[in-house]
Amino acid sequence: MQNVRAEKVTADAVPANRRRGGDIRVVLSPRTVGATSGFMGTVTLQPGEFVAEHYHPHSEEFLYVVSGDLLLRLDGQPLPLSAGEGTMVAIGVRHRLENTGDTTAFLVFHLSPLAPRPELGHVDTEPLPGAAEPAPTVG
Q: Which string of DSSP letters, residue by residue, matches 51-120?
């Protein structure tokens, strides 16, 4: 049996990534806990904020809305999501997330499997709202 040490990481302990929009925090990852199969984090979007359209060529993305009302666009097709609802974005599907409500939206995401190299995990398909921000580090 492998000797596994439990790690606890708070969202406040990792830097916010605002490059793609909103407040994205990769909480559990290869960098923070030595994950080898995927990574998990949180997104906070204020009313009107969005995460720019992108796709993952190697990973599925699982989304679970904790609070708020969101519009997820999957290859341009709208899918409204509210608190208590979740969905999966398949590998290669372009997606964009918008807070369409009048309160802060908070969601949890998980991507798996990991891309062969971190820089291959994400392909942006529209201009980034925070393009001047440094690129996030997951690996």
A: EEEEE-SS-EEEEEEEESEEEEEETTEEEEEETT-EEEEPTT--EEEEE-SSS-EEEEEEEESPPSSGGG
